[in-house]
Amino acid sequence: TLGTQTDYRDGEAQTDPYSPEYVVPSGSVPELLTLATLTWGRGLPAGLDEVEMVERAREKRAWEATLPAMDSASQIAKRRKMMDDMERKEWAFREQEIEKLQEVRLEVLKKLLRRREKNQNELDAKRLDDHWQNHQKAKEEKMKKRVHDCALMLRKLMAKRNNVMGKLERRDIIKEYTDFASQTYAPLSRIGYFPDNHSERYVVKNFYLNTFAGLCELEASLPDSVTQVKVKAPKPKYATTKTGFIKRSARLEMDLAQVHQ
Question: Which residues form a coiled coil (predicted)?
């Protein structure tokens, strides 16, 4: 039931696969020793490239076994020619490897350029969208200001047209009290009147509602039907018909009650 906490985590405890010790007999060169440069994570586990490298090494060893001995001038010339041909093949293979590597790097560079171009396009589109939104907001603000100024000028023109000659008019009290939109009933706050400042004078004050004696008098004047509520019990509904069958509504209520339980 007890656990052990070590000083090392699992990742530090992992090691490379075990490679046992070996002894090479004198005069023999095992082919497996040619792969000693491959280690775990660097060529192992082997892939297609490693298999091709092993095949090339075998072909080269087979080619070295076919080289002529250096015992005469003709054999030396033949050996030099074979070595020149092999060197050309190795250089051609190396050029192919370099071209493949360059193609891979070129593809990676193309992907990076496409990604950068895509990100730049998205950033440009976002900037244009923000710029357009700002222009739209400014346009709407200008339109609102123009509509407000237009309404203000129209009110001024209407006021001037009502008094074209500039004559002074006497106050018509009857007209003010018959028009519920006049300054008497609905004064404007821009002329210095604020109705909310004296709102308490509109509160209804009643003797029957604000005093105990008034409440008692109001209660005594009410009829008995208001103070004494009479509730009539509902008549039960018959669930069966005259012939003795259960009604469909009653059967549905029974089913619902059973489902509810």
Answer: none
- Identify whether the C-beta of residue 211 lies closer than 8 Å to the C-beta of residue 205: no
Residue showing tokens 């080619």: 63
Cβ pair 186, 180 in contact under 8 A: yes
Q: In sequence order, what E strands does the chain have?
A: 39-40, 43-44
**pTM for the predicted model, two decimal places:** 0.39
| Contacts for 182 with CB less than 8 Å, ≥ 6 apart | 175, 176
261 is a domain residue: no
- Does any domain span residue 112? yes
**How far apart are alpha carbons 5 and 13 in whole angstroms?**
13
Question: Exposed (0-12), middle (13-18) or buried (19+): which is 173, by Cβ within 10 Å?
Answer: exposed
Tally the C-alpha atoms within 13 A of residue 202's C-alpha that lie toward its C-beta: 5
Examine residue 74 and state whether it is found in any structural domain, yes or no. yes
Q: How far apart are CA 49 and CA 52, in angstroms?
A: 5
d(CA 29, CA 22): 13
Number of domains forming the structure of the chain: 1
- Show the domain range for 67: 51-158
Give yes or no for a contact between 208 and 218, defined as CB atoms under 8 angstroms apart.
yes
What is the distance between the alpha carbons of residues 185 and 183, in angstroms, rounded to a whole number?
6
CA distance linking residue 258 with residue 247, whole number of Å = 17
Q: Encode 112-145: b = buried (16+ Cβ within 10 Å), e = exposed.
A: eeeeeeeeeeeeeeeeeeeeeeeeeeeeeeeeee
User: Per the structure block, which two tokens stand in for 181?
Assistant: 């939109």
Tens-place pLDDT, residues 97-137: 999 999 999 999 999 999 999 999 999 999 999 999 999 99
